[in-house]
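As promised in the previous annual report, we have extended the structural survey to additional targets. Below is the entry for Toll/interleukin-1 receptor domain-containing protein.
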Amino acid sequence: MPSTKVIEVLYCCSDSEKDEQMRQKLDEHLSPLKSQVGIISWHQGMISPGREWEKEINTRLETADIILLLISSEFTASEYHWNVVVKQAMQRHKNRTARVIPVLLRRVDNWKIPFGKIKALPKGEKPVTDWKPHDNAFANIAEGIREVVEELTDSNFLVKKTYRRIRKEFISIGNIIVNLVRLTFYFLLQPSRHCWRNQTNLINLSKQIIMVALAIYVIVHVSKYVMPQKSDVLETNSSKPNQSMSSKQNFAHVGWIRIGTINDSSHNFSNKSRFIETPNINSRFIPLKGTVVTITNLVSLKKYKPEPYDSKLPPEVDKLQPGVKVVILEVDSLVKPKSKSPRMQIWAQIGKCHRTCNQ
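The corresponding structure token record, generated without further manual editing, is:
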């Protein structure tokens, strides 16, 4: 079942026609991810006529969950992209409110300095132009982005990833043992003047090799799974988690409110526009998880989110007055099954702060 969590992906691309063509190609490879998981992608070409482009990009930089920086010589040569966009994106990454993923389109000298330990895509930081055909690179990038999206939407992601890694390591060590056994029997069956002595020596040697291999495996590979790990695409950040996303016990009340509606004929969040009607909060966009918003109308705080679109509303926990600040804990859609209407209700799980909300 496709996830209904809102994952907003922002493309940061230069004005170069070559870069734009690659961005479009990457977006095509992300199409399955949009329909299966439910993500929203946005780029500067979607800015409506009459709007201030710099203000629009700045707003997207502040609300995106995943920021893709498409690195090329044109991108690094742009004063705005390299010194403004990258700086703002990296600040959100350091604050752990967004994930920055550099995507290396072409070879560029000295591009890694602003990104520290963050790993770029494609795999091995091999530029897209070095892959033949380029589709192989875009498929690899899409796979890396999928992993990050799953980490953001699946609470069991780390467990599943650890299981896959351990299984892979066991298969590798199993293959080593099988090859050692085959080699041992090969020598045992060879004619020799000292046949029995050679057999005994080879058996002892094989046992020692197997024990050493198993010991190395346990020490080097298994121990690293004791502690949870972040996605390989991203650096491990040891900073404290966002205070606004701390335990629910920091809030006076936790519940669900309807924050607005959105038009989407596909009944998921893969639509290109993320503008929504939000009469109850001071945001024109789907709010990012962890964002502090202000209630603008009297809102009924529900104990839980209703399931069917037209079901009886859940019991009320509290009344939220205009001006109250709350923290967004989760955002979800609510759509009537088999409905042909493009309109979806957007609900948010919020935490009402005791006194003030920390950002």
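The beta strands are 7-12, 39-42, 66-71, 99-104, 251-263, 292-294, 299-302, 316-320, 325-334, 343-353. Residues 225-249, 265-276 have pLDDT under 50 and may be disordered. These points will be discussed at the next consortium meeting with the crystallography subgroup.
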